[in-house]
Fold this protein.
Amino acid sequence: MAVRRLKTRVQFQAVLAGAPVAKTPHFALHRAALHSAPSAVSLFAPGVAHVGVLTPKRWAKRAVTRNTMRRQIYAVAAELQTQLPHAAWVVRLRTAFAREQFPSATSEALKKAIRAELLALWQRAMARETASA
């Protein structure tokens, strides 16, 4: 089954209530177990990973850049869906990409940098999952 997207504010709040499980220079990854709270059963469908994205205007001024980031995040999550533990995940942009380094709002270099950082972020989170299990 495919990765589902978080859609409601309540779902995002439930996942963001805890501390990040992994960080990279530009992103933070939050996780909420699906069975951790009784209300989580009604918020999230069991047996599938849920992914949400937060890309604030504060850190990515242009809409095209925010949309590019969202597309990259969902694409990486879809690629890793067989490896992802069934939980609710939120990827949050926590700092801006330097405009001097990436002058174009949606260049190939920016996409590659985002993708590489996202892969590192998910690897850290999954390594932490494996270590705690």
Notes: The mean pLDDT is 90. The domain at 4-132 is CATH 3.30.230.10 (Ribosomal Protein S5; domain 2).
